[in-house]
Design a protein that fits this description.
Strand content: under 5%
CATH architecture of one domain: Up-down Bundle
Distance between the termini: 91 Å
CATH superfamily of one domain: LemA-like domain
Number of strands: 0
CATH class of one domain: Mainly Alpha
């Protein structure tokens, strides 16, 4: 009899485990971790860009000594962008996310002006170091865009899960500490098409 009693207990535990896993209990933590991982990749790409900027500035600076204001602007924008740290606990605070977005947008704008400086220096445009750094920077900007897109998708997935049935039941009971995360939004300036002049 003890054997059958123990067997029933194990069967009941197995049934409970299957029921809990099928009812969505693990969905919220899984999606929260996916969003955090996507955010880590955004930070990774920002760091890659921050590491490339001093090399790009030094290369251009060697050719364009009189463009001092642009170099100062890029250096200050990089310093500000790297000084703002946003950890995963801050991802539900719209003000902190906006602060980081603004700092990164300022760095993007400063880099654009730095690359525009190269138009005035034909020797620089043909320099292999400059071309390699420019290519790396362009690749990094693309990686940042992809990482942001992946983060936005992960945040949308988590935030939808927190608001839809049946996971909303878990969100309002067991996972109350999990808050909706703030996705990236486009800057107001990015809504205006750039003007190309020849």
């Amino acid at each position: 009899m003890a054997f059958f009693s123990r067997l029933r207990s194990l069967a009941a535990l197995a049934l409970i485990a299957v029921s809990v896993s099928a009812c969505g209990y693990n969905v919220i933590p899984t999606k929260e971790e996916a969003a955090k991982a996507a955010w880590a990749e955004v930070q990774n790409q920002y760091q890659r860009r921050a590491d490339l900027v001093p090399n790009l500035v030094a290369t251009v600076q060697g050719y364009a000594k009189q463009e001092k204001d642009v170099f100062v602007e890029v250096t200050e924008a990089r310093a500000k962008a790297t000084s703002i740290q946003l950890n995963v606990d801050d991802l539900s605070d719209p003000a902190k996310v906006k602060q980081l977005q603004d700092a990164q947008a300022a760095l993007t704008g400063a880099l654009g002006r730095l690359l525009a400086v190269s138009e005035n220096y034909p020797d620089l445009k043909s320099n292999q170091n400059f071309l390699a750094l420019q290519s790396q920077l362009e690749g990094t900007e693309n990686r940042i865009a992809v990482a942001r897109r992946d983060y936005i998708a992960a945040v949308q997935d988590l935030n939808t899960t927190l608001r839809t049935f049946p996971s909303v039941l878990w969100a309002q009971t067991v996972f109350r500490s999990v808050k909706p995360l703030v996705p990236f939004t486009a800057d107001a300036e990015s809504q205006t098409a750039p003007k190309v002049k020849f």
